[in-house]
Structure formats: C-alpha cells, structure tokens
Amino acid sequence: MATIKAPARLPELVRATFAKALADGDLFYFPTHVQDMRFQLRFSPSLANKPKAAPPKKDAAGAPSSKPPDPFEYTTSPPPRLFVGDVGAAHFLVLNKFAIVPGHFILATRAYRAQTHVLEADDLHATLACLRAYEEEDDAEPASASAASAGGGDGALFAFFNGGEHSGASQPHRHIQLLPVAAMREGLPADSAWRVLVARLDGDKASSSSSSSSVAPFRTFAEDIRLDTSRDDLYATYLRLYERAVRATLEDESAAVATGGRAAISYNMAMTRSRLVLCPRLSEGGAITDPDTGDVVGKLSLNGTMLAGTALVRTEAEWEALRKNPRTLTAVLKSVGLSQPQFIDDINKL
Question: By its UniProt entry, which PANTHER family does this protein fall under (predicted)?
C-alpha cells in the first residue's frame, strides 16, 4: 500500500488559505477570552452572532423536502475558497468555516462514510500524514521557535475525532479535525503551564489491568506511536484501543467486539505525533450552576478538544460561573466518561 502524503508545505498552505478566506469573508473567526487553569477555559462573546443554518425546505405537506445539507459533500467540486488540498485519493482537507482556533482544518472522506462507524485504516493513515507534515516544518525552524511550537512534547498539530451521539459530533459525514498547537496557546500568559492533555496522561495501557493516569477525571486508553508508524500498525493500534474501550464501557473484558460497521460506543479519539488515545463517552456534557445562587445558567458540551485540555463556553454567565468555581468544570469532566478513580480532584492539576 502506497504511503498517503499530505499536500506540500501543508502548514504554510493552511495559513495562507485561512488568511485569504478570512479576508474575503468566506469563513468566520471567533476570538476568545481564556482562563488559564491548566485545563483551558475559553469564551467567545461573538459566538452569539454565529450565522444560523437555513431551515430545511418543506414540501406541500409540511415535511422536509430534502435531506440536511452535508458540508463535506464535495465528491465532484470542493469549495475553492475553503479547500486546502487532497490527502490521497479518498480524503481531502478543508478549512473549518466557523473557527475558534486560527488554522483549524478538517480531514474529510471524499465519498460519504458515517461518522458513527468504526474508522478505517486510511482515515488514520491520512491523519498521520498531516501530523508528519506539521512536524517537518517544525523541524526546519530554528531551535528556539521549534521548541516553542512543539511545546516540549505536545507536537505541532493535534488531531481529534468525535464518534457517536455522546462525543460532541455535529456532522454525520466522517471527518477528523486538526488544530495547530501553537494557535491553541494564543492568549495564554508566557509562563502558562498548559500543555496538550494527552501528552501528559498515560491512559490505560494495554499491558496494565488498572488505570495509571491521575491528570484527568475520565479514563483513556493510549499507546505510543511514531510519525513513521506503518498504515497497518497504526490501524492495529487503533483497533486494540477501541476494543479495550468498548469492553471497559460494557464492563465485560471477555466481550466480543466487532471492528467494522457502527461503533458499539461513543468515544473521542486524539492523535499527536507520539500518541494515539481513545476516551469512551457516556454523555456530551453537564449543567453549569451559578456558585452564588445555585441556579443552572447553562450547559457545558465537550467534544474531542477535551483531550487537548480545553473547553469552550458560549455565554458570559457560563464563563463567570466556571471561573468562580472551577470544580464545576471538574464535575462535568467526571460525568462525560468512565470514572477515573486515581484522579486528583483539583482542576489546577489538569
């Protein structure tokens, strides 16, 4: 099987395409305030003005006359203003039209594949090709700049996948999202201790029967990878982690796990230059209460960016409530996945 390659000079290409699309009004960028609690908390006041999708057309009987639009249905003509490039014959890269992080881009399947199904080998292989492209640019920079963007082990690019109803997934067409790590640090103080979360946790190792991680309140399943890991070895790693995550969720270590078709659980996957991680999900989020009044002021919804160690709120009331009482964030993080009994109950340890 030939190696799948990312477009040449991918980081530069993403930056240039993002800058032009933003200047031309073809994408929306929502700057954020950030609270540095090791687990980043971000709030974008302008998200309230995010354009809403047009309601589906209805027929004479009042029923939807067509299926919901698929933002990644570009089998014949990718959108020229957001299109970044092809990654092999089966995948392409496109900018996120509604970006919180500058340079946020997406790897999507050219033919329709379900987001709820188990990933295929080329999905992971194409993702690794993008990670490799970012690391190659990072290695070409001067040592000081390289160290800053790599983040002491975080890598230059963070990839994540939302699979299933409890994962934070919003589109049915299969796609994996990619975020430049340097852009994820924007707004943090120079002395911030924040790092990509998956770079700091061990997860449940395949050789261990108990959890070893204490920096997250939810269980994860992880194995180390390399930028030159082969397609087949990478996929075998993913399937091992998926099987372990399913058995842990079902609380049945002897359960047979199908490795194709619809996934048996909701989960998030994250990939960096050195680690592949799966996190089973039981819910998408939880309520946010005002610490002074006890009133519910909103809901915190989490997707795969929680494996980077970041969360986004959409209203000022939610932002203020979580800043006043960070343990509310810890409580929501505890509720979204399998319990991590060795977690130290202190948000500043995240």
Answer: 5',5'''-P-1,P-4-TETRAPHOSPHATE PHOSPHORYLASE 2, AP-4-A PHOSPHORYLASE II
Question: Hey, what long-range contacts does 197-203 have (CB within 8 A, 24 or more apart)?
Answer: 197/39, 197/306, 197/307, 197/308, 197/309, 197/350, 198/222, 198/270, 198/272, 198/275, 198/277, 198/307, 198/308, 199/151, 199/153, 199/154, 199/155, 199/272, 199/274, 199/275, 200/309, 201/277, 203/277
| Contact status, residue 196 vs residue 151, Cβ threshold 8 Å | yes
The residue count of the chain comes to 350
Identify the H or E element spanning 125. Answer: helix 121-140
Residue 331 lies in a domain: yes
Residue 125's domain comprises 10-48+71-140+151-205+213-336
pTM here is 0.89
Residues of the chain scoring pLDDT < 50: 143-151, 206-212
Q: Tens digit of pLDDT for each residue in 283-330?
A: 999 999 999 999 999 999 999 999 999 999 999 999 999 999 999 999
Residue 26 lies in a domain: yes
CB atoms within 10 A of CB 47: 16
Reduce the DSSP state of residue 160 to 3 states and report it. Answer: strand
Nearest to 183 by CA among 315, 308, 306: 308
Pull the structure tokens for residue 245: 């995550």
pLDDT at residue 16 in the model: 97
